[in-house]
Amino acid sequence: MTSPSAPRLLGADWERDGFRQLGWKLMPLRAFLGVTFVYAALQKLANPNYLRASSPTSVVSQMKALESSSPIGGLLRLSLHAPTLVGLMIAFGELAVAVGVLAGLWTRLAAVGGMLLSLTFFLTVSWATTPYYYGSDIAFLFAWSVLATCGAGGVLSLDAWIEARAAAAAPRVETGVDEVRRKILIGARSTAMLASLAGVFGVMTAIIGRAAGGTRHASARGLPPTSTGTTGSPTPQPSASPSGRSHRRRANQPSGNPPSGTALAPISAVPVGEGRTFTDPASGQPAWILRPAANQVAAFSAVCTHAGCIVEFDPSASEFVCPCHGGRYSAHTGAVVAGPPPTPLTSIPVRVVNNEIQVD
Question: What is the model's pTM?
Answer without folding.
Answer: 0.64
